[in-house]
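cron nightly-structures :: item 1 of 1
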Amino acid sequence: MTNDKYILDENGKPKTVDLLTWAKWFETADTAIKQTKIGDVKVSTVFLGLDHNFGEGEPLIFETMIFGGEHDQEQDRYSTREEALAGHAKMEKLIK
């Protein structure tokens, strides 16, 4: 069984950890990567900390979601911070 729990290290890079380490880290962690407000619509990119690919390929541990407007609740998930930031920019363009 693969480990599906991740935290961000001191350099902001994800690493796998055991359940107790994960739970303690998430008690105080700021998981926001980038937040953008355009009018009444918010684009939010966060570190999920759990693999939302559920062991099927690369871990999906970052998520960008739109809140409000025509594309409300549209989301994408990513394996890396870099992919997540690129996805955030894509979502910003979508709602402009």
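cron nightly-structures :: done
The first helix runs from residue 19 to 28.
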